[in-house]
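note to self — DONT lose this again. spent like an hour looking for the file last time. sequence + predicted structure for the chain T wanted, 548 res
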Amino acid sequence: MNGITIEIPPSKFDSDISTNVAMVLSKLNKKPPFDLAVLISEHIKNNDELIEDINVIKPGFINIKFKKKFWTNFIEEIIKNSKSFGINQNEKKKSYLVEFVSANPTGPLHVGHCRGAILGDVIANVLLFNKHKVTKEYYVNDYGNQIINFTKSVYLRIREISFNEPFPIDNEELYPGDYLVDFAKNIINSNKDISFKNFDNISEKLTVLAIEEALKLIKKNLKSLGINHDNFVSEKKLVLNHEVEKVIEFLQKNKFVYKGKIKAPAGEDDNNWIEREQLLFKSTDFGDDKDRALQKSDNAWTYFASDVAYHKNKLDRKFDQLINILGADHAGYIKRITSSVEALSNSKEKLVCKVSQLVKLIKNKQPFKMSKRKGDYITVDDLISEVGKDATRFIMLNRSSDVELDFDFDNVVEKTRENPLYYVQYSYARIASVFRNLNKNLNSDVKVEKYNFEYSSEEIEVLKKISEWPKCISIASNRLEPHRIPIYLYELASLFHAYWNLGKDNPEKRFLDENKKISEKNLVFLKVISNVIKSGMDIVGASTPEKM
């Protein structure tokens, strides 16, 4: 039932779990929450031999403390089902299409793309871990004025190389980045049969070649982040296949479009705005704040029309759920695209949009700008060369995507608990060191004949956190909030390190005895922790080194 929660309470309550079930059900049962909680707690205690104590806290919370045998049973269960621990087996499995990055194919990916790329990839990983079907897709915006200007820019770089003609750096319509020099050189070297003397004669062919070069670079950038898309869908192909016309026909048939005029956009001078009759989509019927243009007065399709056609293409492929990852600059686009999907699918829930907010790079407590090949942004490769893939992925994910993120270079390189990546990796490396001293493979299964041991109160605190792993996965999957995973891993690592450090002063708390041997209790305890850390880091896309 909605509203019922089961939580691990603060340690001061000396309980393992707490639930508000009585308060949620009190109205239904026409009993005060406290009285109902007492009745429920008595029933639970009389029917569960693994409960040590149960008490009621006003206004009606039920706090339960388990016998130590419960935790032995728990760890036995997850050791025996290690490969499925955390997966929601009862959840209906769906097919998802996750579209992310989709940056214009005009140059390398920059830091602004990086966070959204990681967000989309890890959302896909979480869903895959939970046994859903997932397709990762990149929508290539290879049609429109930006591509025309991009092709011209590449051509002028070719002229610069081949004919010593200076590149018109002050032309704001062109792409001035030095990376275009590489594109130009690659095109020249691979196409000896092409004459570059006349742009008009080769513009169509050059556009294809230039986009190929850009996509090569983008895919290289993505690979360096550990990201591989399943599909790259071309906007140009959709247009040439007349999919825009087809979706317009669908919208007309359902009376979702009309001819009308649009008022001046916010920020535009009304006096300079000329109202023209255009083909408009009735997006206000589906929750948007104004109707949107599909066709310009010159009969050319708008970018929005192509996007509607693309989403019709997605829907035609029969996915249960569509997920779009959008940059902060596209947040205002959500209403119009969700309204179009609702019109096309007759469902408000078919499309979910997640926004990836801005990233600020910080070094020495100041905004940081690295050297780069283009004067106005930092590339993904620049960032990875500075801090590595693991840090980039983990830290970019370490905060909810809908708030801005400070990426602090000083923290990322520290070998302290202030660096969450290091702290999590170090916990895994510590466990690996124990297995290495035992000449055991950490990645092999652990088998125990009899689980007849008990765990201490400090160990149970770690096991409580382990027990939260399935809930963490469930929330991350259902709410599309993958930042919960690195946060969870850091909390688990903190508890583990605290327990490890007890052994410095107390030999009984050490995992290996004086003869370098380990008890079965400690062996399975460490194995369970390492399994969860490894699962979580695999989802995040960061490594788990065994030595640090």
